[in-house]
Design goal:
heterodimer; A: mainly beta; 6-stranded mixed sheet; B: mainly beta; 4-stranded antiparallel sheet; 11 strands
Chain lengths: 106, 113
Amino acid sequence: KNEVEQSPQNLTAQEGEFITINCSYSVGISALHWLQQHPGGGIVSLFMLSSGKKKHGRLIATINIQEKHSSLHITASHPRDSAVYICAVSGNQFYFGTGTSLTVIP
Amino acid sequence: DTAVSQTPKYLVTQMGNDKSIKCEQNLGHDTMYWYKQDSKKFLKIMFSYNNKELIINETVPNRFSPKSPDKAHLNLHINSLELGDSAVYFCASSLRAANTEAFFGQGTRLTVV
């Protein structure tokens, strides 16, 4: 079993929809990271959080340390949000989720 | 200016060869990493390195070795390349250890034929 589980694996949404991607982890961590990988392959760090909630434009990330769970929300989704979203946790080492492939249809 | 840059972007080579991938960061970060992304897009950390400590993922074959000439560079050397080494390799850096935000390079797609 992977130390980091993401759901769903694949997600298709209509433009404008509210999107949620979930991440659960089973190891002790010092921080949780949300990464975005576009079809071109480059990886961008969206958030790093160790408690509470962070907001960046239309993106919101939350973490519940007690429940070992994090969510990434995208409000008013847009086709340019189409990408793979990867959850990663860091403590003694990094562990990665398998990614959620998001497609937003115009 | 690119924060974390890797070269080359694409690398095609024959089995048995030795190759290097270079990584440079201009962010003044203390810690650099190498990750491997396999054909199923699954990311796995290979190494993390600061000027004091090299942490190696125990699953990484010893044909892979990081070399750091200075704090801004962490190059990846691979000896005796195998077909299974084909993957995308990402370099990243962060200000301190794993609980700070990481910045990624664009990746190097290695194909071993």
